C-alpha cells in the first residue's frame, strides 16, 4: 500500500484522511476575498465494488405499522441481500442475522426489519426522545438518495424503543418497534410527500446499517468498508422500481398557540397575552418544497450546552430550530464550518446580548431543478435590543458538475444584530472524485466573497 501525504493528514468523519494546512487552509487573498483549500487523498490501488441492487415490490394493500411484521403482504417482498460486518472485523459475517424487506404502495415506502438476537435481554436501548443521538444504542439506520446523484441523502435512525432521529427532513414518518424472544423488529412508513425526489428517476440510492452496541459491531448492505463512512453516499446500493410515485401536494398545516400570564403583585395587575401562529408546509413540485411560518414558537428546541469561550472568535452552537434545520445543507458554502461563513442561521432571532428576538414571519423554498439545487430563505425579525424590526434573506444556487463536483453562488441581505444595511455575494467551487487511485477521495474547495 502506498501512501501520499499532502500537506498535513488528519482523520476525518470516521473514514477518509483529510489534508489541511495551518488554520484549516483558509487564506485571505484580499480584504474582500477568501480562498480555501481542503485536499484529502490516500492513494491505494483497489477497485470499487459493484453496487448491490434490490427491486421494491409494488402492492395495493399496505402493511399495518405495528412492529409485528405479521401482515401477509410482507411475504410478497424478497429479502434484501445479507449485511456485511464493518466493525470490529471488516468483511466478516455479522454475529446476528438481519432480515430486511421493502414495499411500496405508490404513496409510501415501507421497511420491515427483523433484527435477530440470541441474547435479547442484552439489547441496549436507552434513548426515548426524538432526534437524540442513538450511537450508544442498538439501532437501524437508513440513507435514501432520492435523486441517485450520489451527493446528498435523507437519513433515518431507529432504536428498539422506537426512538427516531432524522436529517435533512422534518416531515412525518411512522415507526413502531417491538422486542421479543427472537430479538427486535421495526416497521417504518415514509410518505413520498415527505421527501423531495426526481419523478423521472426509476431508481434511488439506498443503504442500511445495523448496530449491536454491546459488541461494538456494525454491519451494512453496501460499502461495508472501514474507509467509507455510512453517510458517504458515493457507494450506495440501488433501489429499483421507484417510478410512478404519488407525492401529492405535501400540504401540512400546524397551528400553534402560545399563552403567557403576567401578574404585577404590588398593584395586583394581571394580564394574559395570546400569540397565535402556524407553519404551513407545501410542495410546489415533487422536487421543490416550501414552508411559510407566522409567529413561530421555538420553545421545543433543545437548550444549548454551556460552553466557555477563551478565544477571540465567536461560538458556533448547532442549529436546533426546525424551520432553519430542514434542508439547511443547501445553504452551506465553501466547506466553511465556523469562522468566515457568509450565512449562519443561529444569528437570526438572536440579539447582541444573547436574548431571543421574535420572528414575525418567515418563508423558505428549497429543492432541485435538474442539476441545480436551489434555496431561498426570508424572515422578518422583530424589534429587540435597540435594533429595529428588519428583513433578513439568503439565496443560494448550486449546479452539479462532472461526477461529484459543483459550482455555487450565495447572496445575503441584512444584519440581524444592527440597523445597518449589509449584503454579501459569493461564489464557491468544489472538485471531488471518489476514484483517486482506486476508491479513495480527492477534494478541492475554493471560494471568494465580497461584502456590499
- Portion in strands: 35-45%
Task: Please give the domain count.
Answer: 2
H/E element sequence: EEEEEEEEEEEEEEEEEEEEHEEEEEE
The total of beta strands comes to: 26
* CATH structural fold name of the largest domain: Immunoglobulin-like
Instruction: Quote the average pLDDT.
Output: 85
How much is the radius of gyration in Å?
Answer: 24 Å
First and last CA, distance: 50 Å
Largest sheet: 9 strands, antiparallel
Structural class, judged by helices and strands? mainly beta
Helix percentage range: under 10%
Low-pLDDT stretches: 1-48
User: At CATH's second level, what is the architecture of the largest domain?
Assistant: Sandwich
Describe the protein.
With 452 residues, this protein is an all-beta fold. The protein folds into two domains: 53-240, Immunoglobulin-like (Sandwich), CATH 2.60.40; 248-285 and 287-302 and 314-434 and 445-451, no CATH class. The protein is 1% helix and 43% strand. The chain contains one helix and 26 strands. The chain has one helix at residues 322-325; strands at residues 9-11, 17-19, 26-30, 33-36, 53-55, 57-58, 84-87, 98-104, 108-116, 139-145, 154-158, 164-167, 174-180, 183-191, 203-212, 217-220, 237-240, 252-264, 269-285, 288-294, 359-369, 372-381, 390-401, 405-413, 423-436, 440-451. The strands form five sheets. It has a nine-stranded antiparallel beta sheet with strand order 18-19-20-21-22-23-24-25-26, with no helix packed on it. Strands 5, 7, 10, 11, 12, 15, 16 and 17 form an eight-stranded mixed beta sheet that branches. A hairpin with a 3-residue loop joins β23 and β24 (405-413). The termini are far apart. Mean pLDDT is 85; it is low at 1-48.
Amino acid at each position: 500500500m502506498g501512501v501520499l501525504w499532502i500537506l498535513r493528514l488528519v482523520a476525518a468523519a470516521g473514514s477518509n484522511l483529510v489534508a489541511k494546512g495551518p488554520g484549516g487552509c483558509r487564506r485571505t487573498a484580499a480584504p474582500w476575498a477568501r480562498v480555501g483549500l481542503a485536499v484529502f487523498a490516500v492513494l491505494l490501488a483497489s477497485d470499487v465494488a459493484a453496487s448491490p441492487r434490490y427491486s421494491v415490490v409494488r402492492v395495493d394493500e399496505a402493511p399495518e405499522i405495528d412492529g409485528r411484521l405479521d401482515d401477509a403482504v410482507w411475504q410478497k417482498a424478497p429479502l434484501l441481500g445479507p449485511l456485511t460486518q464493518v466493525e470490529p472485523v471488516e468483511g466478516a459475517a455479522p454475529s446476528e442475522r438481519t432480515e430486511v424487506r421493502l414495499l411500496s404502495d405508490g404513496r409510501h415506502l415501507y421497511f420491515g426489519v427483523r433484527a435477530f438476537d440470541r441474547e435479547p435481554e442484552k439489547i441496549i436501548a436507552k434513548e426515548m426522545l426524538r432526534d437524540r443521538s442513538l450511537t450508544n444504542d442498538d439501532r437501524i439506520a437508513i440513507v435514501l438518495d432520492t435523486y441517485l446523484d450520489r451527493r446528498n441523502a435523507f437519513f433515518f435512525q431507529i432504536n428498539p424503543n422506537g426512538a427516531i432521529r432524522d436529517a435533512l427532513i422534518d416531515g412525518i414518518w411512522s415507526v413502531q418497534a417491538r422486542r421479543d424472544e427472537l430479538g427486535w423488529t421495526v416497521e417504518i412508513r415514509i410518505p413520498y410527500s415527505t421527501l423531495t425526489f426526481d419523478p423521472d428517476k426509476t431508481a434511488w440510492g439506498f443503504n442500511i446499517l445495523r448496530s449491536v452496541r454491546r459488541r461494538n459491531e456494525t454491519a451494512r448492505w453496501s460499502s461495508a468498508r472501514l474507509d467509507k463512512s455510512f453517510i458517504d453516499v458515493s457507494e450506495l446500493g440501488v433501489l429499483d422500481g421507484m417510478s410512478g410515485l404519488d407525492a401529492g401536494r405535501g400540504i401540512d398545516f400546524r397551528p400553534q398557540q402560545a399563552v403567557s400570564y403576567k401578574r404585577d403583585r404590588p398593584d395586583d395587575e394581571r394580564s394574559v397575552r395570546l400569540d397565535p401562529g402556524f407553519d404551513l408546509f407545501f410542495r410546489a413540485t415533487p422536487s421543490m418544497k416550501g414552508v411559510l411560518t407566522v409567529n413561530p414558537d421555538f420553545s421545543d428546541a433543545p437548550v444549548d450546552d454551556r460552553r466557555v469561550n477563551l478565544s477571540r472568535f465567536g461560538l458556533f452552537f448547532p442549529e436546533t430550530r426546525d424551520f432553519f434545520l430542514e434542508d439547511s445543507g443547501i445553504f452551506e458554502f465553501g466547506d466553511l464550518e465556523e469562522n468566515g461563513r457568509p450565512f449562519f442561521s443561529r444569528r437570526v432571532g438572536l440579539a447582541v446580548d444573547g436574548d431571543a428576538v421574535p420572528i414575525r414571519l418567515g418563508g423558505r423554498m428549497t429543492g432541485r431543478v435538474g442539476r441545480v439545487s436551489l434555496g431561498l430563505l426570508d424572515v422578518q425579525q422583530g424589534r429587540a435590543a435597540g435594533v429595529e424590526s428588519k428583513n433578513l434573506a439568503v439565496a443560494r444556487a448550486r449546479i452539479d458538475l462532472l461526477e461529484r463536483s459543483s459550482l455555487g453562488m450565495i447572496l445575503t441581505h441584512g444584519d440581524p444584530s444592527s440597523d445597518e444595511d449589509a449584503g454579501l455575494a459569493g461564489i464557491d467551487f468544489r472538485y471531488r472524485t471518489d476514484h483517486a487511485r482506486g476508491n479513495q477521495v480527492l477534494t478541492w474547495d475554493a471560494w471568494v466573497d465580497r461584502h456590499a
